[in-house]
Amino acid sequence: MSKRSRKELIARIDNQLVMKAHYNLSAVEQKLILFLVSMIEGDREDFNVQRVKIKEIERHFVGEKKWGSVYERVEALTDSISSKKITLPKGFVVDGKPVTMNRYIPWFTDIDTQTDEEGEISIKYQFAEALKPFLLKLNEYVRIGLSDVALLSGKHSIRMYQTFIAERNRTKKFKKVSYLAYGLDELKAMLGIPGMYSATQDFKRRVLNPMREEVNEYSQEITIDYDLLKTRRKITGVEFAIRDKKQIKQTKKKEDLTDYIPSAEEVDQLPRAKYEAYQKLVGYGVKEGIAYRQLLPRIKGEVFDGFEDYFVELAIEHFKAKAKDPKKVGAFVKWWVEVESFDSGKGKDWPGILEATIAKKKKLEKKDSTAYANRMEAQKMTRQEFHDWYKKQKEQEEETPMES
To answer: Which of 59, 65, 87, 117 has the fewest Cβ atoms nearer than 10 Å?
Structure first.
């Protein structure tokens, strides 16, 4: 297989599949599928069995460093993907004919891992025949640059980023701003979360706001914003506004946030581990606004979800060990913000923090499996939500009679 540079890695997918299909894949699963799609030769007329080394995937996503959980759980990942399907909703057009009922198709007819004689792990895969019209017979398609996708960590951000790029490319010639509107139920179905987040504030906090923040921070092509649509007084939909990103490097200076202090309500909305990470940063001497708006959002990656406090603790330890004057907190912030030393996937000190975090997680899981499980449960909960959940669990345990 010929090696291509990271900038050359483009996944070409039928526009309709990107804009209308429903599926629920984790962030890592989506990245892997997009990468495997990018390996399809442009002149191919049929799917055949292909193989790609894990090292090749790592190289394109984070240089020479380990690509988080793909490296750690590749067999579990391929097993998980093999059981998941795409939903083509009613009205979806296949070969010129609309689907009359929801149609469910798998991503692959075969996907597995293999180890060669040298001990290198590869993924062997073959896309499902039903995907031919969407991956091979491309008439109108969207080009998805994997360098942007690689830096996104939220599964909803990755899924919608594809639709944003598709719509912007389709309309940019005659519109300064592109708009995409969805009914709430339609959007949730597309994201694979039908029936979830009935409270609008929860949907904004857990889906829409993180999506906006990630795309705007990491995309080199677009920025997005959204408005909630109302029918009478009821929230019934979401409209996204998509703009081209100005090709002027914008840098937030530390001074911009020196006088900003997040409200108690803002801090309380942080998940448990992020709250602890925030407290560690402030305790070290980082200004509240810089900790909240600049440093916490830079902790990216599935490995760190629910363990952001580990990341901050290790980053501070590393800085103290390497810096000429570990008491200069401003230098610590500069290392992170300007030098990007701790930035997920690209910072020079990030791989060491990744390895140390994985080691600490494994140690916790072995020593106290309940505490580890609680952290996993608390990933997307605010501190108060976790407190309420934990209290309820304890009450249920007390009410359950012990076996004689």
So the answer is: 117
